[in-house]
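FAQ: What does the model actually see?

It sees only this:
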Amino acid sequence: MENILAQELELQHKLHKLEVRHQKLKSQSKYLDLTKISTPENIAAIAKSRREMAMTRNAELLSDLNIASSKLHTKNMCPLESKLDKMKQKFLQECDYNRKLKTDPDFV
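And it is asked to produce this:
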């Protein structure tokens, strides 16, 4: 009985995926209507709209990637940068201390 229910759920999932794919292809087909391609102007207009859609999609993807990378930088790099700054300050203080020891014998 459980196997039948599992198979039914799997089939429903596959059917849903097919319906989503069908809708996606159906929505894309309106941009690929070959009956509208009769003149070079129509071809240019279709190409222009395709370029605009691609540019919009690319801009959205770049924006998402920028947000994701800034989150990663904030999460991973900021603590490392602060540690590096502290180490740098400590090193500079030690260098100043050593320089003063070498130049001023009464410093100690």
